[in-house]
Each structure stands twice: as structure tokens, then as C-alpha cells.
Amino acid sequence: MDKLGIVVPCYNEEEVFPITAPALRKVLDDLIAKNKIAEDSFVMYVNDGSRDNTWNLIEKEHEEHPVQAYGVKLAGNVGHQFALTAGLLTAMEMCDVTVSIDADLQDDVNVIEQMIDKFHEGCDIVYGVRSDRKTDSFFKRTTAQGFYKLMNSMGVKSVYNHADFRLMSQRAVRAYSEYKENNLFIRGIIPQLGYKTDCVYYQRLERAAGVSKYPLSKMLALAFNGISSFSVKPINMVFTMGIIIIILSILAAVYVLVSYFVGHVEPGWASIMCSIWFLGGVQLIAIGLVGQYIGKIYIEVKHRPRYNIEKVLSNDSEEK
Ligand code: UDP
Ligand code: MG
After folding, report:
1. pLDDT digits (tens, 9 = 90+) for 49-62
2. Rounded CA gap, 253 and 247, in Å?
3. Most C-beta atoms within 10 A of its C-beta, which of 20, 79, 154, 201?
């Protein structure tokens, strides 16, 4: 039977924790009763340097339910993406399959069962996808959806309306652990792993208690990080703009020369116009060109894995 570890990053979640903990314990109990996961499956709470009572609550939960509730205390606040990674990598050693979920119960815990079913059908990664965002505020909804669209147009592969509610098998987490970058945008990395994936759909609920820990500034930082960590398109855009300006400068040159010969131009105007346009284009191309190299250096220094083997058929390796 596969052992499940549910990973929950928690930052100042003392208000919602007393609701979340029993809800997740119930999920484990139900799945164990249905014989879908091992009896020693657990929930791992990662305390992301909370300044409130969260860690005490996690300790108490672990004392009362030593088999079902684990805790990881990070030394300081490192942000959601790192807290989640810390939890996944710690849990990886202790279980066969992980599910990551936010502490605020906005993601529907009832679809974890469907995720486990898909895992048993052979998926390594199962994304939780919001089928609608009615409960999000208008502002949150439009900014979030704009963000997914922008990501896509920048060529960052990511799953539309999926945040960080997902199932990952042990080997998927292990493959993920090879991505050692510090500009971390987990949602962009997971589709690169290449394993068999599927989605389950759910309605995003209201936060069970407490307030959002993702103010606009953190959201914008995440969005920019997502794009700049996965895409060199912005650099290409500079380059393309340079070429466009050079073409325009030729048109401008024609216009300037015609005006010059037709007359009525101030002395010096024609030469200045031509050089401004032409040099502007040359400069943009030069910056874009330097940018291309910087983009390559950027990709190299990440030391991302270049491939991920799913299966090897050979004579001397045991079947995996
Ligand atoms: N979180 C975290 N560290 C942070 C900010 C948030 O671990 O610095 C956790 C938080 O406790 C929650 C999850 O990340 O479990 C998502 O945060 P939240 O629900 O506030 O974001 P929203 O749903 O509003 O985007
Ligand atoms: Mg939330």
C-alpha cells in the first residue's frame, strides 16, 4: 500500500489551523478506510517562520496524533515556494506519494481521493485545477487570470488555473529536487519533468479563516519571477524591436531625403533625423545581442537537469 504525505506550508495560520488539521486527518482516515493509502500516511505541516502561535499548534497536533501529523519548522520566513519545497523534499524520504495543499482549505480536500485514484492508474503528477473562481474577489480573479495569460504568451509552460495543489509521486519529487534554482517558480518546473500527468477539477472555496498571506506585492514578485526564470522572450523582444527600428529608419531616411530635396528644411535636420533613427535601432540590436548571451548564461548557471528518464529497458537492470 502506498504511503501518502500531505504537505502544508503554514505562515501565520493560527486562525485556520484548528479547522485545517481535523479536516486533513479526516481525509487520511477516509482514504485509509477505503484501503487506498497506507495506515501510516501523514500530514506534514511546514512552519514558514510564523510570528504567531502556529508552531505551538503544530507541536500540539503532533503530540496528540504522532502518526498522522508531522511538523517541520523552518528557521525563518522563506516564502511559500521554498516552504513547500522544504516540505516536499523532507516528506519525499518518508512516503511514496505527496500531495501539496495550502493551509487555508481554499483547495477542495475532497478531490485528494481522485488524485490518489489517478496516481494508482499510473500518473506521476496530478494537478488540482480550479474550475471557477467565483469565490475570489474580482481583483484577485482578474489579476490571477491575466497572470496565467501573460505567462503563456511569454512561452512559459504552466497549467491554467492551477496553483500549488498537486499530487507528486516520490520519483517526481526526486526529479524536481534536481532543480536547484533560487529563483523558484514551482509551477513552471513541474510541467518540465515530463512524467505522465493528469488534472482533477474543483471549485475554489473561500479561505476557511484568517486573511490572505499573498498581498499584491508578493503576487507581482511571483509573477515576475515566473516569467524571468523561464523565458528569455523579453530579451528577444528588445532584439526584434531593434530590427523594426532599423527598418523604420530606412523609411524615415526616404522621408527625410524627399523633404530635403523638396526644400523647406532647416540645415542639419536631415542628418540628425537619419542618425537618431538609425543609431537607435543599432543600439537596440546591440543590447538585444548582448542580452542573448546573458540569457544563455542565465540558463546555464541554473544547472537544470537536461532530461529525465522515465524507464529503461535493458538486459541487466531490474524492472522498475
Ligand atoms: N505561505 C507561506 N509563506 C509565506 C506566505 C504564505 O508558507 O510567506 C502559505 C500560507 O500559509 C498558505 C499558502 O502559502 O498555506 C498560500 O497562501 P494564501 O492562502 O495566503 O495565498 P492566496 O490563496 O491568498 O493566494
Ligand atoms: Mg489561499
Report:
1. 999 999 999 999 99
2. 10
3. 20
